[in-house]
Design goal:
The complex is a heterodimer of chains A (66) and B (290). Chain A is mainly β. Chain A is built from one helix and five strands; from the N terminus they run E-E-H-E-E-E. Chain A starts with a strand and ends with a strand. By secondary structure, chain B is an alpha/beta fold. Chain B is built from eleven helices and ten strands. Chain B has a five-stranded parallel β-sheet. In chain B, strands 6-7-8 form a three-stranded parallel β-sheet. In chain B, strands 1-2 form a two-stranded antiparallel ribbon. In chain B, helix 2 runs parallel beside helix 3. The chains are: A mainly beta (66), B alpha/beta (290). Strand 5 of chain A pairs antiparallel with strand 4 of chain B.
Chain lengths: 66, 290
């Protein structure tokens, strides 16, 4: 199935979870937050939250800012 | 005989008796730094160390796979606390969601709340700001709102339960200093939470003035990160904030229109002929001194 990750169309396995996506994209989950369809997905629930076709995922972390 | 050079107490002795307390957390440094605008993480780290800051802002942005180095590692090494911001948000809804994501990412319920109302001035949208502040306070956040220098809005933010209020000196990144010192003085009188001057600082004298006006702390970013020598400017800002705070606590003399001699006239010698023998010059000198 296809989801959008940070604005880019991305293929993921059926049944993939947020935890799978984070593990696949990032060396470490430290300092990372995830939103799916403009809702916060708390870190503690990442292994349990399945992705669905068409989900809009934002993977976010710290950037320099004032 | 040579007198020993006067020594100043080390910085910790000057500041530990006068901590800044925000949301129950005590800080010895009254300089809060932003991390935006630094040419590299190396320069940023050196500047943060030189500033002596214990609280520093970060933004929340999409992960950049090409990024090298970790901003959070830099802040860890410096030993500062992370203050996530909601920079770039134009609505309460967006700012609240950003704050919640930052809480999950950085494991802190502190937030520098920014809700911008205009992309040219980057001035805060007071209505959206108050709405977002109320939602976040209700959700248990320690909210530090970036606001205008309007005393009424500052008072309402404090009444909502914000842990501090952060009025601007002038627009973000403008380096124009403090455009309305009177309003800052009024805000300091009218709210019980810390007042943090946020935005507009251009150079060290601006930061010192903010503290002399009674602000409890100064938050600045680009004045340091975009200075020609960020590390040197960070040192200047640390000293300026300390100096301004000390001057405020010391109690400045009142402003007067006319001079007031600091040297007594008592015991003044007679070095010119008495009046009548010496002409106009001697006579006028006898009438007054400096």
């Amino acid at each position: 199935m296809q989801v959008t990750v940070n604005g880019e169309a991305t293929e993921v396995d059926d049944g993939a979870t947020i935890a799978d996506l984070v593990d696949g994209h990032l060396p470490s989950p430290r300092g990372v937050a995830v939103a799916v369809n403009a809702e916060v997905v708390p870190r503690s629930t990442w292994p349990d939250v399945a992705l669905h076709d068409g989900d809009r995922v934002e993977l976010l972390t710290a950037a320099q800012g004032g | 005989m040579t007198e020993p050079a006067p020594t100043s107490p080390p910085p910790e002795d000057r500041t530990t008796d006068d901590p800044l307390v925000i949301g129950g957390i005590s800080f010895t440094s009254r300089l809060i730094t932003g991390t935006g605008g630094a040419p590299s993480l190396e320069v940023l780290e050196d500047a943060l160390v030189a500033s002596g800051t214990q609280l520093t802002t970060v933004a929340l942005r999409r992960i950049d796979p090409s990024a090298s180095g970790s901003l959070l590692d830099v802040i860890d090494r410096v030993g500062a606390r992370v203050l996530p911001n909601t920079a770039g948000c134009y609505t309460a809804q967006e700012a609240v969601l950003t704050a919640k994501l930052a809480r999950d990412a950085f494991e802190t319920d502190w937030v520098k709340l920014e809700v911008i109302g205009d992309d040219r001035t980057l001035l805060p949208d007071a209505a959206e700001l108050l709405d977002a502040a109320e939602q976040l306070v209700d959700d248990g956040f320690v909210v530090l709102p970036y606001t205008t220098d309007d005393p009424v809005v500052a008072r309402r933010l404090a009444a909502i339960g914000c842990a501090a209020v952060m009025p601007l000196g002038s627009p973000i990144g403008s380096g124009s200093g403090i455009r309305n010192p009177y309003n800052l003085a009024i805000i300091r009188e009218q709210v019980d939470v810390p007042v943090i001057l946020d935005a507009g600082i251009g150079t060290a004298s601006d930061a010192a003035l903010a503290m002399e006006l009674g602000c409890d702390a100064v938050l600045l970013a680009t004045a340091v990160t975009r200075a020609q020598d960020p590390v040197r400017m960070a040192t200047a800002m640390r000293l300026a904030v300390e100096a301004g705070r000390l001057a405020r606590r010391a109690g400045r003399i009142p402003r007067k229109l006319y001079a007031e001699a600091s040297t007594s006239f008592d015991g003044m010698p007679q070095l010119v002929p008495p009046v009548g023998d010496g002409g106009a010059t001697a006579a006028s000198r006898d009438d007054g001194g400096s």
